[in-house]
Structures are given as C-alpha cells and as structure tokens.
Amino acid sequence: MSDQGELVRVGISHGDFNGIGYEVIMKTFAEHGMLELCTPVVYGIHKAATMYRKLLNIQDFNFFGIPDADKMARNHCNFINLTDVDVGIEPGISTPAAGAWAVKSLNRAMEDLEAGKIDVLVTAPINKHNVQSHDFNFPGHTEFLAERTKTSEYLMLLVSEGLRVGTVTGHIPLQQVASALTTEKILSKIRVMSKSLLQDFGIRKPKIAVLGLNPHAGDGGLIGKEEDMVIIPAINKAVEEGIMATGPFSADGFFGSGTWNKFDGVLAMYHDQGLIPFKSISFNHGVNFTAGLPIIRTSPDHGTAYDLAGKNVAEAGSFREAVYMAIDIYRNRKTWKEISVNPLQQQQRRERDRDR
Hints:
This protein is α/β, with parallel strands linked by helices. 38% of the residues lie in helices and 17% in strands.
C-alpha cells in the first residue's frame, strides 16, 4: 500500500459507456466521505466522462487524470484515459464500440490488479451481447475472471446485508439445468460458499441453506428425483466435511416465510430461482460478488439500463454498496490471513517485531 496508507485502492472498469456506468460511478464518488474510505481509479474514456458530467449536470465533482495507476492521488477520483479517439458515444444504444471498449477497460484494470497497483476490482455493467468477440467469448464477467485467474471452483454470489444467494448453475437455458446438476458440482459450490463466508465475510460458523430443484423440493420423489439422487447426497457429504449445510428447501416457502433470515448463505440450483427472490428483496442495493477467486471483484446487481442512460434518474445505491463490499472483503481477507497463519510463524513474527 505504501503511500496509500490504509486506504484500499479500488480499480473500476467503466463498463458499457452507453449505459448508466458513468452516472453511478460519478454519483457514488460525489458522495461525501467516499474518498476517505478508499482511493479509486476509473479505467475509462475522458470524452465519455466529460459528456456525461455535462449531460447529467453533476456539480462539484471532477475526475483527476493520471497516466498510470501507480500515480494515483489520495482524496481524488483518479481517471486513466484509454483513448482520445472519437468512439461514438450514444446513450441508451448498444453498439459494437461500447462493447469493445468495455472489454479493453476490464483488461487494463485486470493488468493493474495482477501487477499489484490496485487492491480490488469493481466492474460497472456490460452488455453480454456487444462484448462478444474473438478475444472475449464469455457469458459475463464471472466466467471471464475465472479463466483469467485460472480458477475452476467459483461461485456467483449476490449479497445484500444478511442475504447472500449463490447459484449452482449460471447463465444456461432452463431446460438444461437438471442435466447440469451433479452431486460433485453442488458439493463444490457449497465448499466455495462456506470458505467465502469464513474468509470474506468473517462469519465463524456459517450456516448454509440448500434449495431443492423441483416444486416442494420434489415432495418425496413425487415431483422429481433430483433431490433424493443428487442434492441430498451433496448436502450429506458437506456435513461430513464439517460444513453446516441444511436442506433441500422448497424455494417458495423458504423465501416467503422469511426462513432465509436464519442462514448466512443460500445456495439455489439455477439463476432465476435465486435471483428473483433476491432482487425482490434487495433491488438497487444488492452486490454481485465472485466468490472463490484469488482476487476481489464486486459489481452492482443491475445491468446497463439503457432506458435510463443520460437521464439523471439512475440509482447509485448498488454501485456504492459494491465499493463498500470490495473494501470490507479486502480487509476481512487480510484479517483471515493473519489469524490463519501457523502459530509458530505468528510467534516468530512477534519476536522479530519485539527485537526491532
């Protein structure tokens, strides 16, 4: 951290410049006190930033231009300009250029994260269609970052205060979900969630609820066999490993009755099973966190919102929470690393400190 002291260095990829990315970034760091918590650097396009600042009439806020992340200044929202070329900014419109520059911003931020110039990454929303190319052939940020970091076991985790929802399967057609579920895959996601709740969220004995696949969690096999044949064996193996996993629960009753409040994490079998109740409870305040990665990456739980772009009506709450969470997880991981050190190593370190 050196000259940055205790402030966490937050790298921000600008996402799709025709969406609400710049608006939520500027509204977040115009908030009083934000620059006392972290030192941000945005990887973006100066012309886009200038245009949105004027279009949205955001007063008393300026980006601070720097040539490289190692030149970032405290008490400023730093900005690295990726190009001076006219990229064709069209608020509310999906364009190939917006997708290409979203990927370039993400790659530049990742390079600095890998080089240790920033501590965490917060990603503004991208359009999953216009980013597709020979260089970026992924459903979204999660899969890209998993491959970039060579991580095979990871989990998309949606978080809002005490509600944390992960999904076993991701962006796949609903008709493929049942065949994609295996005992080992479910067990892997339970393990990732349990470890993340420990090291990233500081929960000492996390309790995990596992949802069923079928209505009424299969109703004893009357409405499907996946619970008995695939899900329950995964839960049993997790329990044998010392993980406090329970289920399978019927998703409707689980969320409808508020049972989710009794658990630290919830593992859903597929995307909408987990995200519909999550967004119903926490929309505009939820955060997308990729658990299991060696790096820390968070994102708001909304998309590009083209229909709101350039109208000064976008809520910045989710993006702001994504920044808060990245900072918290960074500090929690440092604490976890310190308490997980071998006792002998801890003693040797204390002795070294005493002799100095």
